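Researcher: Please predict.
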Amino acid sequence: MNASPRVLVIDDEAQIRRFLDIGLRAEGYEVLQAATAAEGLALAATREPDLVILDLGLPDRDGHEVLSELRQWSQVPVLMLSVRNTETEKVRTLDAGANDYVTKPFGIQELMARLRALLRDRAMAGAEEARPRYDDGRLGIDLARREVMLDGLPLSLTRKEYAVLALMLRHTGRVVTQQQLLREVWGASHLQDSQYLRIVIGKLRQKLGDDPAQPRWLKTEPGVGYRFVGRTD
């Protein structure tokens, strides 16, 4: 990653681009700007940004189409901006490969916090690919060995419990939608069986001693999915 992370802003509103340009540069980021989908995809291909902020409502193409094309050749973190704030839209966008979703209007501090989290997640993902392990002093997970330890003792998990936990760990910090979890753990024929997922998440929390009201590891994103937060405090 660059010494100064490079952020590509794809948004047709000049006011939003100026607002983000000022805020991002003040935080030390290098900023690229595009007002159209075509320009944004060209910059993404040639300038290799560390993160993309993408508006859903672009003049030449819908943001979903841009995201779909981008995902054919890049796993760069994408933070989606939109005035559309329904759960259905958020789920659709996250399922399509976006890493996070922020609705307009938004506060610059919240956006910066989400951006920093996505960049941290990307760095952690690179380390995770090299050695798929997690250890915060209490919970230890070694995907290569298929081992889960809690407070120094082996934790007995069912096959489905382990699969859900492993999938969430591989996407640490990122929302994993219910549809993605059901599709990858149970199969495409079980996309409507959300009760299966709720039961497994409940069992995982019980075994981990994870309070859903103040989660240490497994956070619920209401109506969307779940997030492995990996707190170390």
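Model: The helical segments are 14-26, 37-47, 63-71, 87-95, 108-130, 159-170, 178-186, 194-208.
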